């Protein structure tokens, strides 16, 4: 295995009280794609900043290969002092870096470069920051929540770009699908310490559950052993004093281990407050239109949402999701057409605009609306501190100002307020932002099992697939179509075309699935492979074998511990050659697999 470009070992850091990092480790070799996962507040961002050299640990070793370049994507990029996005992006380039790479990235991220930083939305600022850190093609790329505020088309493009890059990538993200497709190793930061799984995030949750179960068994065994030793000391046959003192010392050590064990962090308890049942018809829209000047946002859209439906709205930023959502819930009147709301509706809305919360307000005051120490949840009086514990807040945080919360804590606070209110229609705008995996799982269960109706806006494909019964997506020119099923089902019905392809598609009638003729697949498969395809299918295995042998030789050369010390220049060239060969191998294998599947389809 190649020597690491980055290696953190025994990292310790404490901000008063319980250590945030207590012997954490993190390493990355050339080309590795690593997911850094853990609960909100576990120290993931702090560990990434230590890797970037922005924070010094109190103890532990930090090694970065001297010649390696490192770029770090913060959650909140700082663009002060830059006149334009282009100036900000190009400031991240080194002397030998290609400025055309910066232009390429800005174009694919939907930026011209002429935008002024002060005028950018959250999503545009995130795209500019991504272009800045990716443009130099660094040896090590550290990404903290890269998909936040990005629309689906950009997330899918970013996935492909990160899979192709030769940079070592360490990333933090709440987007499961993104992590599953990009990563090949997982580092779990839990209670200040790290564990590594040399498999991608798709295998993480099963492994995590096994680790926690084994830890619980070991703790139980330790408890039973303490009980046996205490019984021996009290009632056992008296042995030599030296032996008694030794066993007493061992018992004290075991007691200390048992008491100091930090159990797995608790999980949030999410229960929506039930309102009286709504009518069977919740929302009916007929041929609604909405325009702003010359821009048509919604045109001729119709839908019927019934009690128990869970509807997802998807689309690029600026497509009009929020406008359509406001019209469906009666907050905004359409220019034409009608919207009818059902009877007995109680609507609870999750406002994802963090600035809508007064940063000076305390958590208890925010949850109770300043009405004392109690709030009504599901018809029962609950003390605000008790209710806060359901969402993993500590009692002492009741008087904490909102400004001191992390992004994940703010997300949980907003959910706590929304779910306390009686509702039979939940309207959730980007509910998954900043939530850790465990809380996200509970939110999925809540949405999937909610007795009322749910309308949600989300860019999280996995969340949509697990929760919604239908998806409303834009088709361009103000046209919106509703598809049965989740996000993956929508793609299948569209013939595999993604959301960014919508402008190239012919117009479709509102509320009808695209006709088969519109789909990108050919009308019918050829009866047999072409000569070129057959030749490629026959010759590709030999090419794959040759490249595999080349990779093996290069890996053996790199494995020589004296190689780097003997000839650093040749070592770096060998690393680059290895990355190139691995990329070639992946392309050859993918080409062969596509041809083999095509052959099997024709023969079948």
Percentage of residues in helical conformation: 25-40%
Q: Describe the main β-sheet briefly.
A: 6 strands, mixed
Q: Which superfamily, in CATH terms, is the homologous superfamily of the largest domain?
A: P-loop containing nucleotide triphosphate hydrolases
Could you name the ranges where pLDDT drops below 50 across 5 or more consecutive residues?
239-243, 501-526
> What general form does the structure show?
globular
Pfam families: ABC_tran, ABC_tran_CTD
Catalytic activity: ATP + H2O = ADP + phosphate + H(+)
InterPro entries: AAA+_ATPase, ABC_tran_C, ABC_transporter-like_ATP-bd, ABC_transporter-like_CS, ABCF_ATPase, P-loop_NTPase, Uup, Val-tRNA_synth_C_sf
Family: Belongs to the ABC transporter superfamily. ABCF family. Uup subfamily.
């Amino acid at each position: 295995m190649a020597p690491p470009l980055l290696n953190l070992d025994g990292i310790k850091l404490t901000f008063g009280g319980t250590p945030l990092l207590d012997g954490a480790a993190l390493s990355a070799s050339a080309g590795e794609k690593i997911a850094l996962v853990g609960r909100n507040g576990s120290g993931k961002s702090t560990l990434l900043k230590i890797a970037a050299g922005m924070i010094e640990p109190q103890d532990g070793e930090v090694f970065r290969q001297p010649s390696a370049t490192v770029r770090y994507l913060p959650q909140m990029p700082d663009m002060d002092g830059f006149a334009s996005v282009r100036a900000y992006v190009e400031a991240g380039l080194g002397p030998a870096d290609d400025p055309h790479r910066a232009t390429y990235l800005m174009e694919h991220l939907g930026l011209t470069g002429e935008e002024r930083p002060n005028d950018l939305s959250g999503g545009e600022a995130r795209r500019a920051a991504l272009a800045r850190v990716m443009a130099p093609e660094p040896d090590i790329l550290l990404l903290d929540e890269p998909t936040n505020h990005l629309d689906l088309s950009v997330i899918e493009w970013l996935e492909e770009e990160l899979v192709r890059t030769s940079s070592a990538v360490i990333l933090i993200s709440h987007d499961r699908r993104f992590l599953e497709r990009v990563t090949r190793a997982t580092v779990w930061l839990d209670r200040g310490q790290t564990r590594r799984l040399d498999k991608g995030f798709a295998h993480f949750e099963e492994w995590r559950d096994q680790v926690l179960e084994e830890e619980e068994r070991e703790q139980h065994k330790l408890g039973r052993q303490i009980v046996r030793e205490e019984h021996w000391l009290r009632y056992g046959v008296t042995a030599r004093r030296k032996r008694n003192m030794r066993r007493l010392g061992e018992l004290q050590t075991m007691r200390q281990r048992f008491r100091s064990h930090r159990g797995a962090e608790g999980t949030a308890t999410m229960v929506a407050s039930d309102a009286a049942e709504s009518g069977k018809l919740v929302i009916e829209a007929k041929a609604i239109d909405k325009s702003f000047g010359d821009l048509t946002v919604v045109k001729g859209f119709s839908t019927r949402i019934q009690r128990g439906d869970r509807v997802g709205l998807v689309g690029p930023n600026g497509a009009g999701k929020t406008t359509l959502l406001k019209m469906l819930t009666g907050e905004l009147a359409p220019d034409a057409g009608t919207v009818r709301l059902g009877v007995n509706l109680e609507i609870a809305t999750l406002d994802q605009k963090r600035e809508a919360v007064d940063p000076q307000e305390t958590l208890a005051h925010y949850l109770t609306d300043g009405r004392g120490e109690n709030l009504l949840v599901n018809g029962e009086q609950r003390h605000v501190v008790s209710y806060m514990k359901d969402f993993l807040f500590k009692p002492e945080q009741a008087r904490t100002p909102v400004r001191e919360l992390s992004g994940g804590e703010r997300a949980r606070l907003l959910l706590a307020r929304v779910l306390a209110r009686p509702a039979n229609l939940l309207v959730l705008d980007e509910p998954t932002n900043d939530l850790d995996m465990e809380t996200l799982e509970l939110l999925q269960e809540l949405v999937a099992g909610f007795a009322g109706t749910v309308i949600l806006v989300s860019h999280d494909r996995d969340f949509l697939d697990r929760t919604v019964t239908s998806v409303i997506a834009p088709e361009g020119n103000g046209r919106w179509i509703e598809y049965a099923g989740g996000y993956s089902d929508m793609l299948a019905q569209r013939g595999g075309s993604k959301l960014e392809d919508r402008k190239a598609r012919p117009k479709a009638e509102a509320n009808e699935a695209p006709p088969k003729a519109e789909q990108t697949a050919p009308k019918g498969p050829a009866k047999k492979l072409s000569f070129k395809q057959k030749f490629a299918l026959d010759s590709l295995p030999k090419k794959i074998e040759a490249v595999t042998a080349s990779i093996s030789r290069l890996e053996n050369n790199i494995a020589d511990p004296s190689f780097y010390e003997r000839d650093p220049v040749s070592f770096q060239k060998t690393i680059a050659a290895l990355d190139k060969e691995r990329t070639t191998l992946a392309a050859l294998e993918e080409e062969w697999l596509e041809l083999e599947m095509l052959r099997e389809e024709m023969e079948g």
